[in-house]
Amino acid sequence: MRELVSKKDANAAWSYFCAHYTAPDCSALDPACLPFIDVPKHKSRLVYTELLSLMTRHWIQQLESLGSPENIASPSPCDVLQAFDRLAISSPSITSSLAFSLAIHLQLAAAKGLDVLHDPTTKPVLVQLIELWPLCFFPRWETKDHKAFQSRCAALVRAPTQKPSGLVISLLLVQDLLCRAKSFPPDLEQYRLHLRALSRTTPFAQFSGAAVRHIEMRLKSESPDDALGSAQLTAKLCNLRSASVLVNVPANATPKDQNRPVAPETVEQKTKRLVAYVSHAADKQNLDNLERLWTEAQDLFADEESRTTDNAPSTLRLYEAFLSAFFQLRRPQSGLQVWNSMLNSGFEPTVRTWNIMMKSCHISRDINIMESMWQQMRNSGLQPDVVSWSTRIYGHLRVGDIREGMSALDEMGREWFASQNKRNPKSAATNITAEIPAPNIAILNTAVSALRGSRAHHIPNVLAWSRSFNIEADVDTYNMLLAVALNGGQAADAASILKRMAASNIEPNSSTFTILVNSMLSTTMLNDLTKMEQEAKIMGLISSFEECGLKVDVQGYALLIDRMLKEHENLAAAQSVLGHMMARGVQCTPHIYTILMTHYFDANPPALFAADALWNDIQKTKGHTLDVIFYDRMVEGFARHGDVGRTMAFLNRMSKEGKRPGWLAMMAVVQCLARNNEWDRVAQIVIDCHKQEGLLSVGLRGKKGQKDFWYYVGKLADNELYDSEHGKEIFAIVEAQREALGM
Q1: Does 679 fall in a domain?
Q2: Of 34, 43, 41, 30, which Cα lies nearest the Cα of 390?
Q3: Residue 252 confidence (pLDDT) above 80
Q4: Nearest CA to 144 among 29, 261, 241, 58?
Q5: Model pLDDT, residue 423
Q6: What is the mean pLDDT of residues 238-258?
Q7: Which of 215, 246, 277 is the last residue of a domain?
Q8: DSSP 3-state assignment of 742?
Q9: What three-state secondary structure class fits 122?
Q10: For 493-519, how does the pLDDT look when each residue is reduced to its tens digit (9 = 90+)?
Q11: Does the keyword Repressor belong to this entry (predicted)?
């Protein structure tokens, strides 16, 4: 679907979405139903925001062309959101972003002289926006009357913040349009009370100087030629009055849905909501939120209704969501707690449940336990699906024993052959054998992926196995084989693979570009060139691939930026690549931000002003998501350069977002505080690390640097901290940690 969205083919993208995204637990949305190699692709949920943006632009274009929403075949923005809601993939950030973009569209129309409340091409957009707002405030099972709406509006516009959300700005922008209106359309009467509630709250908006600057920057970013008059418009938004066209309310006017009875939230609705929130917490790496959701879910799990025949499947799906999320965030003990709770509540594991548990063994690298789970699943009478087989095969080939992995491939093939031999075409009872999954391209790609690197010499055996089942390689297979050949310096093999791709009519994709560029940059191709020549060479390389119909994906851009900075210290070339990426509408990722920040911190002298500027740009970016690696580098970078304030600010930000810092980042924090003689704060950080409280209440991540951290703290305990207020406590903590770590 991402490819269709990137091609801006709205009709095809929506058709694909409707055909493949059919239910909250459909295979397109369920990581447990995806082959192991496709799971990372699923985790990037930005595609839903991009799809909504594409469909909104398409709907508006049709509205401007046809002049009436009744003539439009495409779904409206609210229709798309309702589809997202049914699939439990909607989120406040998606809704807020849409509200902002619709309000900007109306303001731009007003700047062109249109009467947005009456013009047939803008009035439906306003209706969409009005119907959209309650989705930002209320779960769909709550009442949405105008009094509750007014209360939520007031809380939003009066909240102390330096960065008003897109939702808040959309409220202000519409109020400005209402203030300018000369009359109120009769066919919008059903919305009058909601708009009047808005009009009563926005004049009391309270914005700091930073908030005002933020609003102005958001407006400028949506209007590069400043058609909105951002400075003047911002000043108006911060000094709004009530709208005179809303003063008189007809006696018979009632807002849409105001009097409709609303049913209480059902068990199915609760589980849907929690599944969506759990998935969001895992994607954001927010362990704190995830643990709060687990606590919230206990009331639902204790409810007898959750175990009825109708509700049990959705309740089990929630258990599985928690299992997957805790293992994804490397919290195996919490995952086992979920598992035990599920069993104690009387739920039997399904194939999907076992798949999640087996995948967790890849993280712990305990293939014996994975195999034990496989046997338990088989002994329970469950038939493994393709995901089960791919998970088991990947585990053995990547982490365990090659012979066991090849044996698992052969076992799958034998079982399928046996099921085919038992089939009786004349018999009606063929549905039993249909449960035996056939070896397919997903299995082949999983096996090849597992063997990349030091085990690549076993790949021919896997390819030979696949030929027994007439499995045709796809672009992912060829890309992996190409990467293996190039990484091994086998240029002739790589050329042969590209020829086989062409002979099989398989088009290269953006991943092919990344692989080829990685190989090219690993040579001395750029070493003897000036920085300007390097920049020209790289941009020419991108152009040559685009001329061949290949699009550069975000991984390819990240690779180019990384190599330009780390190997050639060519910031100008990296910025050109970044500019090209942004011009192509490719979203910047946390990985790219991390590459740039690392370069700024490592520069001599450090480019801290550039780091600040980039951080400001990141904060202005719509829907930006940052990972723990990025935050670790920010903490380490500012700590290394002695900036205690910003070091602690980013550590505090991690804590608030439920993200766990690594031990190397905490080492940098303690060293920074020690260099600045902040001994009380050093002691508090050490205590928080030991007890996992305060700023470290969500714990720390991994083991790398853990022993070095406690060794360094031990030196402080023996010297600078010896006579301090917390000296004895720190010494006892260090001794306990040394014993636990075998130091």
Answers
A1: yes
A2: 34
A3: no
A4: 261
A5: 67
A6: 60
A7: 246
A8: coil
A9: coil
A10: 888 888 888 888 888 887 888 888 888
A11: no
CB 725 within 8 A of CB 680: yes
Pair 676, 641: CB distance under 8 Å: no
| Distance set, CA 275 to CA 129, 235, 572, 689, 693 (Å) | 27, 42, 44, 31, 27
Residue 178 CA from chain centroid, whole number: 36
The DSSP secondary-structure symbol of 421 reads H
Q: What's the rounded Cα separation, in Å, for the pair 728 and 459?
A: 58
Measure Cα distances from 151 to 77, 248, 361, 676 in Å: 25, 21, 49, 47
Q: Which of residues 246, 273, 305 is at a domain's end?
A: 246
The more confidently predicted of residues 569 and 136 is 569
Between CA 181 and CA 2 the distance in angstroms is 40
Q: Is the peptide bond before 139 cis (omega within 30 degrees of 0)?
A: no
The one-character DSSP state at 505 is: T
* Percent share of the chain, pLDDT over 90: 25
Q: How many domains does the chain have?
A: 2
DSSP 8-state assignment for residue 349: P
* Paired tokens of 35: 């082959």
Q: What is the largest CA-CA distance in the chain?
A: 89
Give a three-class secondary structure readout of 683-732: HHHHHHHHHCCHHHCCCCECCCCHHHHHHHHHHHHHCCCCCCCCHHHHHH
- Alpha-carbon gap, residue 78 to 130, rounded angstroms: 10
Does 226 fall in a domain?
yes
Is the bond preceding 605 in cis, omega lying within 30 degrees of 0? yes
pTM: 0.53
Q: Which amino acid is at 178?
A: L
H-run or E-run covering 482: helix 475-487
Residue 648 placed within a domain: yes
pLDDT (mean) for 44-66:
82
Amino acid at 427: S
Question: CA 255, CA 195: separation in Å to the nearest integer?
Answer: 10
Structural domain harbouring 98? 2-246
Smallest CA-to-CA distance from 632 within 590, 692, 580, 686 is with 590
**Per the structure block, which two tokens stand in for 414?**
């034998």
| 578-608: pLDDT as tens digits | 999 988 888 888 999 999 999 999 998 999 8
Distance of alpha carbon 34 from alpha carbon 446, whole angstroms? 11
What confidence category does residue 143 fall into, taking pLDDT thresholds of 50, 70 and 90?
very low
Query: Per-residue confidence at 68, pLDDT binned at 50, 70, 90?
Result: confident
> What amino acid occupies position 16?
Y
Determine contact, residues 465/496, Cβ cutoff 8 Å.
Answer: no
Q: In degrees, to the nearest 5, what angle opens at C-alpha 339 toward C-alphas 335 and 341? A: 115
Question: What span, in angstroms and rounded, lies between the C-alpha atoms of 633 and 283?
Answer: 19
Residues 6 or more apart whose CB falls under 8 angstroms from that of 146 comprise: 193, 194, 196, 197, 255, 258
Q: Give me the phi and psi of 712, to 5 degrees please.
A: -65, -45
What pLDDT is recorded for position 179?
A: 86
Q: At 708, which amino acid appears?
A: D
The residue to which tokens 């589980």 are assigned: 271
* Contact of 105 with 145, CB cutoff 8 Å: no
CB 141 within 8 A of CB 208: no
Domain membership of residue 279 (yes or no) is no
Q: Distances from the Cα of 271 to the Cαs of 26, 107, 230, in angstroms?
A: 15, 39, 43
Distance from C-alpha of 682 to C-alpha of 721, rounded to nearest angstrom = 9
Within 249-331, where are the H helices?
267-283, 287-302, 312-328
With beta carbons less than 8 A apart as the criterion, state whether 20 and 26 touch: yes
Whether the pLDDT of residue 633 is over 60: the answer is yes
